[in-house]
């Protein structure tokens, strides 16, 4: 409702970026810093949790109060208990903050202390994080996700690969920096991959291999009033199969035709609206270099 959109919090808790790999995931420090600046401009008190002292967002003069604590449900609950914030931002700390936010929501901590989740609703976070729910939602609006299956054991992984046909790509869900992901050309390779991935994550995604396809992504912003803009689109110099964190990305894309560019842009806006995301979001595609066939990766 209108009043809900306008009611302003007095104090906001931000889950920070936590530990960062060098050369990767620095954007979460940057986006968190921007969030703090924006809140300060609006005269809203900011409380930040971030165990990483080597970040911009923990610098003096940024947040009103900084807790150098791990971003885990136990510690975050302690901070909520003593600070009593009106709202919390989960979308500025990367995967660590999202996972932590989902756990706190499920255990009812936010409700208990009357903390409002600002920006993207928690249901949208869960819907986009859980690959199975994500692909079902995407199909509802007539778009396609790469043919894949979510599995929970090595046996299920092998059965899924039989159905999809080798080669396949295995990815651990809810994982950081593409941990436990890779390609498998046969049963042996998949067994080894699945064993490693399931040690890190409970869910494993088996995808039809799209090795060699172009990897294109769009950054889209949507506000609570349903205004959408695409900030930019990017293209990985390396084809699909090389983790984005280890690849060079060029913005704007260099090899898309005008038609391809607009086709993917329209889809990006359609998807972000369907999921009800509020704030910034990134959508990744696999695009066949020889035709206009594409799949949404995440």
UniProtKB/TrEMBL annotation:
Q: Does the keyword Coiled coil apply?
A: no
Q: Which GO terms describe its cellular component?
A: cytosol
Gene Ontology terms for molecular function:
aspartate carbamoyltransferase activity; ATP binding; carbamoyl-phosphate synthase (ammonia) activity; carbamoyl-phosphate synthase (glutamine-hydrolyzing) activity; dihydroorotase activity; metal ion binding
Looking at its record, which EC class is this enzyme?
ligase
Q: Name one GO biological process term.
A: glutamine metabolic process
Identify the residues that the record assigns to the ATP-grasp domain, covering every copy: 135-298
Chain segments annotated as coiled-coil in the UniProt record? none
Catalytically driven reaction(s): hydrogencarbonate + NH4(+) + 2 ATP = carbamoyl phosphate + 2 ADP + phosphate + 2 H(+)
| Enzyme Commission number, as recorded | 6.3.4.16
The highest taxon in the source lineage is: Eukaryota
* Keywords from the named record: ATP-binding, Ligase, Nucleotide-binding
Name it.
carbamoyl-phosphate synthase (ammonia)
Species name for this entry?
Bracon brevicornis
């Amino acid at each position: 409702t209108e009043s809900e959109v306008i009611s302003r919090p007095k104090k906001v808790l931000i889950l920070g970026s936590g530990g960062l790999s060098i050369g990767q995931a620095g954007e979460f420090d940057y986006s968190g810093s921007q969030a703090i600046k924006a809140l300060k401009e609006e005269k809203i008190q900011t409380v930040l949790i971030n165990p990483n002292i080597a970040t911009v967002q923990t610098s003096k003069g940024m947040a009103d109060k900084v807790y150098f604590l791990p971003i885990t449900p136990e510690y975050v609950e302690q901070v909520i208990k003593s600070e009593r914030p009106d709202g919390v931002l989960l979308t500025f700390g990367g995967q660590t903050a999202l996972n932590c936010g989902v756990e706190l929501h499920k255990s009812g901590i936010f409700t208990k202390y009357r903390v409002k989740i600002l920006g993207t609703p928690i249901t949208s976070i869960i819907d986009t994080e859980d690959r199975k729910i994500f692909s079902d939602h995407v199909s509802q609006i007539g778009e396609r996700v790469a043919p894949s299956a979510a599995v929970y054991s090595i046996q299920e992984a092998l059965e899924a690969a039989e159905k999809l046909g080798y080669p396949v790509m295995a990815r651990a869900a809810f994982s950081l920096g593409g941990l436990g992901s890779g390609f498998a050309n046969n049963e042996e390779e998949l067994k080894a991959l699945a064993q490693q991935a399931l040690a890190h994550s409970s869910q494993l995604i088996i995808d039809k291999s799209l090795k060699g396809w172009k990897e294109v992504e769009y950054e889209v912003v949507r506000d609570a009033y349903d205004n959408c803009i695409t900030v930019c689109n990017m293209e990985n110099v390396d084809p699909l199969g090389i983790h984005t964190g280890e690849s060079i990305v060029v913005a704007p894309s260099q090899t898309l035709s005008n038609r391809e560019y607009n086709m993917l842009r329209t889809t990006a806006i359609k998807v972000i609206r369907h999921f009800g995301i509020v704030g910034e979001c990134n959508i990744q595609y696999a695009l066949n270099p020889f035709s206009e066939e594409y799949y949404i990766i995440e």
